[in-house]
Structure formats: C-alpha cells, structure tokens
C-alpha cells in the first residue's frame, strides 16, 4: 500500500496513479478543481501524466462562488 496525505488526512492507494484517475476515484471527475502535489500546483493539462506516489501530500481545491 502507498501512503499519502490528501487535504490533511492520511489515505492509502494500491499503486501510484495519475491525478486524473485519482480525481475520478474520489468523485471529482469532470469537476473544476485545482491540485497541488507537495506544494506544487499541477496544470490541468498535466493531470494525465503526473502520478501520485508514496509519501505525496495532495491538496485538492474547488472554486467557491460568493460575494456580498
């Protein structure tokens, strides 16, 4: 098992996986999100080729609308 941290919470994966696959697995597929791995923001165009692996710290942020 691969141990990672997602938004401050410990999590496990069976094997390294792309950001795209990870987002789909977590129910974020098709949604507009920003992702950082180890404090480095990853461009959406690089989600397929960027893999989450042992010890990575993943942050997923969704935009929230609002105002006064």
Write the layout of secondary structure elements.
Elements: E1 2-6, E2 9-13, E3 17-18, H1 19-25, E4 34-37, E5 40-42, E6 51-52, E7 57-61
Parallel strand pairs: 1-7
Antiparallel strand pairs: 1-2, 3-6, 4-5, 4-7
Structure description:
The chain has 68 residues and is mostly beta strands. The N and C termini lie far apart (46 Å). The radius of gyration is 12 Å and the shape is globular. The protein has one domain: Ubiquitin-like (UB roll). The protein has one helix at residues 19-25; strands at residues 2-6, 9-13, 17-18, 34-37, 40-42, 51-52, 57-61. A hairpin with a 2-residue loop joins strand 1 (2-6) and strand 2. The strands form two sheets. Strands 2-1-7-4-5 form a five-stranded mixed β-sheet, with no helix packed on it. The longest helix is centred in the N-terminal third of the chain and has 7 residues, at 19-25. It has one helix and seven strands; from the N terminus they run βββαββββ. 10% of the residues lie in helices and 38% in strands.
Total strands: the figure is 7
Outline type = globular
Number of domains: 1
Task: Please give the CATH architecture.
Answer: Roll
How much beta, percentage-wise?
Answer: 35-45%
Order of strands across the biggest sheet? 2-1-7-4-5
The CATH class is Alpha Beta
State the CATH superfamily name: Beta-grasp domain
Spans of at least 5 consecutive residues whose pLDDT stays below 50 are none
Q: Gap between N and C termini, in Å?
A: 46 Å
Which structural class fits the helix and strand makeup? mainly beta
CATH level 3 topology = Ubiquitin-like (UB roll)
Helix residue percentage = 10-25%
What pattern of helices and strands is seen along the backbone?
EEEHEEEE
Mean pLDDT: 94
């Amino acid at each position: 098992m691969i141990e990672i941290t997602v938004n401050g919470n410990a999590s496990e994966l069976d094997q390294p996986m792309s950001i795209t696959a990870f987002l789909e697995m977590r129910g974020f597929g098709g949604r507009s999100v920003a992702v950082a791995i180890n404090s480095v923001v990853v461009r959406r165009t690089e989600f397929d080729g960027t893999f989450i692996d042992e010890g990575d710290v993943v942050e997923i942020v969704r935009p929230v609308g609002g105002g006064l």
